[in-house]
Structures are given as C-alpha cells and as structure tokens.
Amino acid sequence: MNKEMDKEAMRTKPLNPPASGASIEEGSEAASVVAPQTVKAPKQRSQLAEVWRRLRKNKMAIFGLIVITIIIFTAIFAEQIAPYGYQTQNLRRIAESPSKDHWLGTDELGRDIFSRIIFGTRVSLQVGFVAVSISVIMGGFLGSLAGYYGGKLDNVIMRTMDILLAIPSILLAIAIVSAFGGGLVNVMIAVGISSIPVYARIVKASVISIKEQEFIEAARAVGAKDLRIIFKHVLPNSMAPIIVQGTIGVANAILSAAGLSFIGLGIQPPTPEWGAMLSGGRMFIRTAPHIATFPGVAIMITIFALNLLGDGMRDALDPRLKQ
Amino acid sequence: MSEYLLEVKDLSVEYQTDDGVVQAVTDLQLGIRKGETLGLVGETGAGKTTTALSIMQLVPNPPGVIVKGEVLYKGVDLLKKKPEHMRRIRGNKISMIFQDPMTSLNPVMTVGFQIEEAIILHQKVGKKEAREQAEKMLELVGIPKNRIEDYPHEFSGGMRQRVGIAMALSCNPEILIADEPTTALDVTIQAQVLDLMKTLRKEFGTAMMLITHDLGVVAEACNYVAIMYAGSVVEYASVEQLFNNPKHPYTKGLFNSIPSLDEEVDRLNPIKGLMPDPSDLPPGCRFHPRCPMARDICSQQGPKPVSVSEGHMVSCLIYEGLVPGYEEE
C-alpha cells in the first residue's frame, strides 16, 4: 500500500504547479527522476492486474469464476472423481432414483448419471472453448482486416458476414453438421463457424475506433508494417470486448452443442454429452424425471457461471469505470 | 546557399471531402539544411501538420491527396518512392514526435516495447541488443532504465513526451519532425522538453522541423523560421532577421499581438478577423481580408515570394512594389 502511494505521489509530482522560479522546477524534476529508483521495482501494475483488482470486487463474478474453476478441474480429473466409468452398466439397477450408491441415480441403461455428467464436462468444455477459439480467431482476423483497411475489402468481408448472420446460428450449425456428419470435431467447427460474424462485427467496430488514435499514426511514423500495426497495436487495444464476448460465447457454444446433440446431430453415444443425455432421458420424463433433469441442471449451472463471469469481465474491463 | 537535406517544392495537398475540396497546403516551399532547426509557425489550421504528414507520407488517404509538388530528401523525391521504401525511411531517417504524449503512446504496451519497435524494424539487431539500446535511449532522455517495463499510464505528461523523443531518436534519424511537441505540456515542462530536444539534437547532429504556434519556442530553439498562413509560407527567414525585422503584414501582426513587457497596454492587439475557411479561400492574397495594408489589387493578384535580403523571403505584394508599403506611409 505504502509503495503504491509512493508511486502515485511520484507520478503526479511533475504535474504539480511549481510555486515559483526555476530552482523549484529543477527540484521537482530531479524528484521525478530519482523517485522510481527508491520504489523497489519491478512491481508491475499492468492492465491485467488492474482488471483482476476490479474483478475481485464483484462477488457474483468471483462466484462464477470459482464454479468454472471447479468444472475445469472436474473435467481434468474426471477419472479420479467419477465413482463409475461412463460406460459401466448395471442392468439390475435401471432408471433408479438417486441413492447412496448412485448419487444422481442411474439412466435407462443402468449407467451412473453422476459419473456421466462428470465425464460430460470434458466434452462440453472442449466444445465451448474450441468453438469460441475458432470463431474468435477467424472473426477477429476478418474483422480487423475489414476495420483497418475499410473500403472494398471491408464491404466484401462484412457483407459475407451479414449473409452468415441472416441465417440463425443454430440452423447454420445444423446445416454444417448434417453436411459433414456429427462427432465432436465437426460440432466444434459448426458451432465455431456459426458465430464468426458476431466476433467479426465486434472486432471491426473496435478496430475502427482504435485505428484513428494518434499512437497508430505514431506506429506508422516509425515505419511499422500494416500487419504489425494490426497485431501489435490495434488488436491488443481491442481485447476487452473480445474477452467479454468470448466468455459469454463459451456459454452459447456449450448450449448450441447440447442443442445439436439433443436433436441427435451432435456428439454420438455412448460419449456422455449433456445435451445427448438430456435427449435420451426425455422418453422417461414421467417415470424417471431425474435422467433428464440432472444433465439439464449441469448445463444450467455451467452457463450461469460463465454468464456471471462474462458480466463481471465486462464491468472490470470497461474503461469508463476506471477510477 | 548550401545543399538542403530536405526540400519541399510546390507542395499542394487537398482534402477531398463530400462538402468540397479543402486546400490544406498550396504551393509550399521549404528547406532544411543538415543540423539546422526550422520553425514552422502558423495558426491552427494553417496546414502545418499536413505539411509534416506529407513529408512522412502519412496524410490520411482518403480524403487527403498530395496534388503536386516534390519532397526532396538528399535530392531524391520521396513522393515517388514505393511504399516499402518509404516505410524504411520512416522512423529510421526521418522520424516524428507527436503533439499529445497522452495519446501518441500505445496504452497497452510497455514503453520499452515501443522504443524497441523502431530499432527492431530498422536495424538488424536481436531482441536483447534492442532492449539494451532502448534502455540507453531512456536514460538519455532522463528516465531511469528500470522503468522500461512500465506502461505509459504510469508516467507523467512530460515523461511521456520524453519517451516519445526517445522513440523518435532511437534510430538516430537525420531529420526529426516535431509536431507541436510542447503544446500539450505545462509551461515548466515545456522548457525541460525543449532543452532536452536541443541538447540531443546537438549531440546527434539531427536536423529538425519544429512545428509550433508559439513564437517564444521558435526564438528559443530554431535557426530558421517559416511563417505559414492558410496553407502557404508567407515569410521565411533566419530567426534574427525575423525577430528584428519582420516584413510580412501577418508576421508583424503576430508580433504585435504578443504583449510587451516594457509597455503598459489595456488590451491585447490581435490580428482582426479569423483564418479563412480552407475550403473557401479568398482570391488573390489569402491574407488580404485581414491585412491592414491591403489594397484592391490584393484581392486580384496572388503574391510571389520575393527575396528582401539574403535568405529572407516574403510573399507580399508590398515587396513586389505593387502596393504602397510601410515606409511610404
């Protein structure tokens, strides 16, 4: 705290109006040069640290972050956590309600639902993150080209994106999956492609506002190439909206993948996918409602947590809230 | 007259907007010799920055178009160079310091990265050497090198401008274009930055074009001065000639509007009227609507540059003998 105050004082010092005369002016100058050495560097106060500090204040976002961390760990250590294998059947105990042996009951084939949900986190998280990565990278690239160069290129790229946007993303994903077949990889690609336009638009908008800034002109004045300017100067400054949209996008991607699996186009059994599990359980919703309920709850919790985190990130990254 | 390092000939730049063509710079003549400092003085909107950007070929296009003219650097026309060649000159041979240090540094990159950038782009050095050079530059401008990992928001305005100077000088350019480098700073910090620029300029032997609207800064830092009005140079002279013996009515007006320490005056004595709208320039001499000496002919005939003494050029019909001048009245 003390260090921080020191630094703060040092930072504002040269801006203080000197009382009078040149000697004082020199004095304050000397202080501004010497002070940093007395503050023991390298205490980085990068933007990241700043964002983290603000995010920490948001209880709900931290709750979301904790839940997501738990989910990620669940996915990594699924074998250790799950009491049964995801394919292990016990045909004597079919569609049983939750009990001591099977915490969330068993499904219509006698498989432990709790274990299957735990293994299902792997699929869902993979789909979520990979699909978002695809759309962020593609959308970001196209959007930054369109925003930076403008003109004809902008028109070609953005009109293509508009065409993609005109098709509901789930419909587009269905089309892609039915053309290329189901399976994990195709689902990721389908969900990824269907949300490229969203990112392209966001990135383009922020690139347009950033490329007018003076430091971009300064970068051009030192002789930087266009691509270098885009990647080193423009994009790092437009990360905030991308991160926010990306966090919320993971939730949407998980939901889309679950939706695809629900209608039977996504991940194929016996791979435990939440949407597929939900879909499998809907036939027994009257006799054994827990089969469909628990995967649904898992989807809900994950998406809820991701949305909380996304909202928190938006607040933390909003420069207008900087104090 | 010795060889110019950088010479601008008949430069005309237009901004072609939907509302009409804005003539930002018209038939501009300039020259800078090696190691000299040229002050480019004019009101806001006189075309100073456009001139600087034209030399760097950074005029935003569209809407900016360089209509005609030459920018000769060591006798070679930069306007005819390929973009790739021009890119190698920018930041390396000719570099620029920007007006507002608050916005001319990238807020998400460390100052070290930004100083290294020019070095990496133009010199064949590794990351480590570039970092060492950047540290050296930082110390040269009076910032301790352990702050190299800091971000621009952790510096004060004056320090940021010094980072800007370090960036501009990092490749040891032959020409430095400083676009109102002190306008955004406190008066006390202005003096420090100007001193620093003066010292470094001497050390490196860099020629400089200092854009400003502050005649005090010109007197402090320049050898030669070009006074710009509405897109062209109206008077070009050495600092001594200009301050002792201003010729153009506009220059005289500028000096008259500075309050004097010796005389007691109730009101300042500004030049009457406003700078003309650059999309709707008056015919003839562009200054005639505001000129106290104007005659009818001034609205019909544009002046040509006339040499009144060694190295002192004035564009005014008075000195072409077409309008009664100051002596005759």
| CATH level 1 class label of chain B | Alpha Beta
**Mean pLDDT figure of chain A:** 81
Q: Strands of the largest sheet of chain B, in order across it?
A: 6-7-8-3-9-10-12-11
Please describe the biggest sheet of chain B, giving its number of strands, its sense, and whether it closes into a barrel.
8 strands, mixed
| Helicity level of chain A | over 70%
CATH topology of the largest domain in chain A: MetI-like fold
Estimated radius of gyration of chain A: 26 Å
Query: Terminal Cα separation of chain B, in Å?
Result: 34 Å
Query: What is the oligomer described by this structure?
Result: heterodimer
Count of DSSP strands of chain B: 12
Quick summary:
The complex is a heterodimer of chains A (323) and B (329). In chain A, 72% of the residues lie in helices and 0% in strands.
Could you walk me through the main structural features you see in this protein, from its secondary elements to its overall organization?
- The complex is a heterodimer of chains A (323) and B (329).
- Chain A is mainly alpha-helical and 323 residues long.
- Chain A has two domains: 2-43; 48-321, MetI-like (MetI-like fold, Orthogonal Bundle).
- Chain A is built from 15 helices and no strands.
- The two termini of chain A are 17 Å apart.
- Mean pLDDT of chain A is 81; it is low at 1-44.
- Chain B is of the alpha/beta class and 329 residues long.
- Chain B has a single domain (6-93, 173-320), classed as 3-Layer(aba) Sandwich (Rossmann fold), CATH 3.40.50.300.
- Chain B contains nine helices and twelve strands.
- In chain B, the strands form two sheets. Chain B has an eight-stranded mixed beta sheet, with helices on both faces.
- In chain B, α3 (111-122) packs across α4, α4 (127-140) crosses α5 and α5 packs parallel to α6 (187-204).
